[in-house]
Amino acid sequence: MPSMSLSKIVLVYAFSVVSVIAMLNAEQVPYKLVDSVCQKQGNKQFCLEVLKSDARSKFAKDITTLTAISVDVAKKNSTATRDYFLGVKTGPPALLKSLKDCITSYNNVIVNFKICLNEGDCSLIGYDIHTAGDEVRTCQAITDSNGAHNSFITARNDITEEFCGLCESLADLMCS
């Protein structure tokens, strides 16, 4: 008889464990937070693409994780843009003149993205991201004043500005 009681206890325990696991999995809807946050963004599709590009977003529980993802992706994009600019060696004088200053601006963008999430004060995170956006706008102003407005620099700046806007919006949500 004692072995029968033990087997019943084990069976009840096993059923309980399986039930708890099933309930936990039922509550975890993939990309639930991502979908909720991206609904509030100006460019919902861009937000979804950026955040879903990182596996951490699938079951993210907080805005901090999503902010970190957007900053990481923005930093990679900005680094790729700067590196592309560095690789351009020939072109119209206005373009080459713009690139020289834009490389400096993008170096600053990258630094701001690198340091923003290490700030002790939440308001400084948004400030660093906003400053990164200011650097992109500086690059564009230089490009415009040099007469290279419709060049690939403008297209790259537009994308980076989109990243800055998303990162800043998520940082604002994180800090509120």
How would you describe this structure to a colleague?
With 176 residues, the protein is mostly helical. The chain is built from seven helices and no strands. The longest helix has 26 residues. It is elongated and about 85 Å long.
Key features of this structure:
single chain; 176 residues; mainly alpha; Butyryl-CoA Dehydrogenase, subunit A, domain 3; 7 helices; 0% strand; elongated
State the gist of this model.
Helices cover 79% and strands 0% of the residues. The protein contains 7 helices and no strands.
CATH superfamily: Invertase/pectin methylesterase inhibitor family protein
Number of strands: 0
CATH topology: Butyryl-CoA Dehydrogenase, subunit A, domain 3
Intertermini distance? 61 Å
Mean pLDDT: 90
H-E string? HHHHHHH
Count of folded domains: 1
**Global outline:** elongated
Helix fraction, binned, reads: over 70%
Write the layout of secondary structure elements.
Elements: H1 2-27, H2 32-38, H3 44-52, H4 63-87, H5 93-116, H6 122-145, H7 152-175
Helix pairs in contact: 2-3, 4-5, 4-7, 5-6, 6-7
